[in-house]
Amino acid sequence: MNGFSLKIPPQHWLKAMPKLTFLRLIGILSFLTFFFLLAKPVTSDHLPDPHSKTRVKTIYVILWFDTEDYILPQSDDAALRVAEILTQQGVRATFKIVGEKARTLEKRGRQDVIAALSRHNIGYHSNLHSQQPSPALRLSNMGWEEGVQEFDRTERVGFDEVHRIFGITPVCYGQPGASWAPQSYLALKRWGVPLYLDEGEHVGIDGQPFWYGGMLNVFNMGKNQTRVQLHKAADVDEAKNEFEKIYLRLKNSEGGLVSIYYHPCEFVHQEFWDVVNFAHGANPPAEEWKKPRIKTAQEIEQGYRNFEDYIAYLKSHCDVKFVTGSEVLELYKDDAPRKAFSKEDILKTAGAVQREINYQAWPGFSISPAEIFFLLNSYLAAYLKTQQAPASAGCEFVYGPIRRIETGQQSGSLSWNQLAAACLDVQSALKKNQQIPSEIWVGSHPLSPADYLATLGEAIQQLVTLGKPKMTLSVRHGNFTAEQYVARDCLEIWKWPIFPDGFHSPKIMDLAQLQAWTLKPAVLNK
Questions:
Q1: Half-sphere exposure of residue 296, counting CA atoms within 13 Å on the CB side?
Q2: 107-119, pLDDT tens digit by residue?
Q3: Which residue intervals of the chain bear CATH 3.20.20.370?
């Protein structure tokens, strides 16, 4: 039998029954009806209907810890306890380790902490964290190449130490505090680091993961970043309500990622270790370092209870899944480099860049302005070599330009031969340097990358539509709008008490805006 069935007596048998027996039967039937109503499964927003044909939208949670305090010994125990709590609950997190913290754990003989953290994903969180100068302060007046080299020189040592001590290659990097700089991306990419995991306000796209500088970024998550506070029991209910709002909003769209982060030292201290020692640009010698004040035993236990209850609550959602940095890379794998763009796709893209230069969203993937630049330039370069329009073309990652120029003949015109020579020259530069040239020479006249791309778009549109090149072209003005996703330099984005008072960096943010050529939203794999 496939299910329970209730046999009902024939009606003629009911008529022959005494009145009392009939009433008893009615009572039994009423009781059984009530019983089955109670036994019916209760529906919930968190329990998907197994018979539904609608795809279940998963909400992913990345839980990460900036593991940095190398002054307070109790922070070692906090890291151990947090890691063990998560392991007991079957949750894997991502622990970003400061180089000096790793060396300190080794010196203190804390192999128990190292082993516990190694059961999770390991990331890198700078070499010395808050000792002056921090990365952004050090790079604040440097250009692109000089900054890349300086970041490699000063930060690679900590990366290698974390690798050596934990026996794991860090999967991600995130800056200390607000000490962010775009030059770090090229250095990190050369080290083989694929993920930038942190929080900040320097660059971002609407609180979602994005690609920038050739790396996947879980950064500036804004409305999709949350946590439970560790102070009092009532914090848990407040955090549940906040998560529920995020959960429902993401469920009503296409799912997505929630970012939750802590510092293990938060569980035991009353004040941050680095604020006590390095605030406002201070840099005392190690013998003068002070330990931060410690919470009471009761306060510490309350924090752990809040954390455990919150993790259990998140796990109670059957469509919420914890992911590590490595798993996020799989969820947001970039399909653009594997796509072949047809002539129709090329024509569409060539038309779009004449109006606006920004990332483009395609079904299942997106392409950055730099990838569009490579796509169109390589398409025309292929035509010039064969004198036949290719059936398709592909895109590759390249970095954005590193300085600004004004087009020398913005309202002028150029010949097809001049554009053709410039295209082949640019293609050579793209292949050799993996970077868009800061200025593109058309004969003796320089064009900005945006103006060149808009002009290139018109040339390709003519070529594909008419089957032959237009012999004279007007120089088009490129409307580059991707910089809107990068903050303008202001004190607000550098609000970290470790910086010297009044610190800001127009140089860093100008380079950041130039690298907006590499920016595009990351697409969640369905």
A1: 4
A2: 999 999 999 999 9
A3: 59-332
For the 59-332 domain, the top CATH level (class) is alpha beta
Q: How many CB atoms lie within 10 A of CB 276?
A: 18
User: Which of 372, 238, 245, 318 is closest to 47 using CA atoms?
Assistant: 318
DSSP 270: S
Residue 409 confidence (pLDDT) above 60: no
Q: Which has the closest alpha carbon to 349: 369, 330, 363, 332?
A: 369
pLDDT of residue 526: 74
- How far apart are alpha carbons 208 and 236 in whole angstroms? 25
The Cα 55–Cα 271 span in angstroms is 45
Residue ranges of the alpha helices (H) in 279-388? 297-315, 325-331, 343-355, 369-386
Residue ranges of E strands in 127-267 = 172-173, 195-197, 210-212, 215-218, 256-262
362 φ, ψ (degrees, to nearest 5): -120, 165
Q: What is the structure's pLDDT at 56? A: 64
Report which residue type is found at 491. L
- Report the candidate in 453, 508, 515, 451 with the shortest Cα–Cα distance to residue 483: 515
Which tokens hold the place of 349? Answer: 């893209």
- What pairs with residue 362 in β-bridges? 365
Element (H or E) spanning 520, and its range?
Answer: strand 520-521
Mean pLDDT value of segment 355-378: 97
Q: What is the pLDDT of residue 218?
A: 98
Question: How much is the pLDDT for 408?
Answer: 65
Report the b/e string of 243-268 with b at 16+ CB within 10 A.
beebbeebbeeebbbbbbbbbbbbbb
Range 101-107 average pLDDT: 98
Report residue 354 as tokens. 């004449």
59 neighbors 251 (Cβ within 8 angstroms): yes
SS3 assignment, position 105? helix
For residues 462 and 347, give the distance between their C-alpha atoms in angstroms, rounded to a whole number.
Answer: 9
Residue 59, token pair as written in the block: 């909400």
In sequence order, what are the residues at sequence separation of 6 or more whose Cβ sits closer than 8 angstroms to the Cβ of residue 431? none
